[in-house]
Design a protein that fits this description.
Helices cover 32% and strands 16% of the residues. It has 141 residues and is α+β, with helices and mostly antiparallel strands.
Length: 141
């Protein structure tokens, strides 16, 4: 997945996720990318800073105090339990296995494992669909 900063002809700025850069171009050409504020389909990519990975002191986006925080946390834990119980663990071969499945070199199946930042970036570039698997220990209620 890739996110783009977008701008409509009415100068509304918004972000949107796409499977790949090619998917954005295709959806834009078909007229199905629209501004969430004014519904204009005259949209273009806005100038945005590149995401640069840093070592050691990386910051992550977090939240606190949402009225449904405990419920959301339990839903994430349930999602993790479901994936772990129903998918194949492939360890540090995740990127390799995900690509094989994506390019139909292996049978489609659910998998989970670990990937480096570079591997994640490569999967995004290749248009491989995946999600981060949340890890929420029980002591963080």
């Amino acid at each position: 997945m890739i996110t783009f900063a977008l701008l409509c002809d009415n100068q509304h700025r918004f972000d949107a996720w796409f499977r790949s850069a090619e998917a954005f171009d295709e959806q834009l050409a078909r007229g199905i990318v629209s501004c969430p504020v004014c519904a204009s389909i005259k949209v273009e990519k806005a100038l945005m800073a590149p995401a640069v990975a840093r070592s050691g002191s990386d910051k992550v986006t977090v939240s606190s105090g949402h009225p449904q925080q405990a419920e959301i946390r339990e839903l994430l834990r349930a999602m993790r339990r479901k994936v772990v119980s129903e998918a194949d663990y492939v360890g540090d071969r995740f990127a390799e296995e995900a690509r094989k499945i994506h390019f139909r070199e292996a049978d489609a199946r659910g998998i989970y494992g670990e990937a480096t930042r570079d591997e994640v970036a490569g999967l995004i570039d290749d248009g491989v669909d995946f999600l981060p698997l949340p890890n929420l220990p029980d002591e963080h209620n």
